[in-house]
Amino acid sequence: SNKPFQIIPSTQFVEQISPASGDGNEDGNKIPITITIPENTGGVRTAEITVKTEFQEKSFTITQDGIIIEPKNEEEKTNQLNGMGGEKNIEINSSVEWKVEVPAEFKEWLSAEADGNNLTLKAGYNNLFITRVGHVLLYPKSNVPGFEGVPVEVRQPRNMWADGAEDIDPETGYATIRSNAQNRYVPNFSYGKGKIVWNFESVNMPAGTDGFLYLNGDTWHWNGAANGAGWIQIRIYPQDSTTKSSFKLHYDWTAEEFTLEESMNDIKTIELDTKVDPEDATNVTFSINGKVYYSGKKHNAFDLDGHKGVIFYSGFSGPFSPECTIVFKSLDYEVYE
Predict the structure, then answer these.
(1) CA-based Rg of the chain, rounded to a whole angstrom?
(2) Which of 44, 292, 312, 320 has its CA 20 to 30 Å from the CA of residue 197?
């Protein structure tokens, strides 16, 4: 430098610089600079030093080796697991014995195990209407002060798709559909013996609407389903509607009619529970906000040869006025063996 200069470190481990400043020289000859870096007992770390004059500056990056704990394959720093739940094994490169921790905010659905140089990631069923994203953290087994856990990301897609238009709240992940068209959700799984629960933030159906909430469990997807056996239809009309609400399991084509006892706008959960008893009959329980509206036995359509369950269309079957909205929070599903 032929000008006065100073050297500015970006972080503490590169701050021992000699000289940290100088006057330069008229010929611009090189001036030796020594940077003394302490031993690194943590992970690989980087820093910058910036040399500044009155009119110019130049930065240099310094990288110091340290403890290595990372996926062997770079692409496995981010991992996608099946939305219905699943697991994945990842090989870990490490210079020390290591362990894995799951942050508290992800423990409800994500777990992990360390075994030798293997990391196993496990995720449960994703009940949200958005892709679920979390991570685990890799640490040395022995305590290393200041070591920041190495993140391994897990992404899990949602288990439904929108047949029509939807609005997703980026803050809550809640999903809204409107009755200005046939807007509805379709799960990626078929429902048979098990429990399915729709959880709502709100159901808004103004007085006088000609609309209704429609949960239509269709069988047309599957070859071999006997004459629509097991087809489930749930139609829920507001209290002031002249049409009765109904629950129908299409094997004997009998509709169980009922009148909603609470306001449509107070609906928070709708649950359908289907079991099979030893007498080869399906025990079906249908409830709204925990109140049972139907419980009884139907022919066990779900055990017929070729029947693989039903695909539920959840939402609006067509345009209704005045406009109605449904805000979904989550869709729970439990399979019975």
Answers:
(1) 30
(2) 320
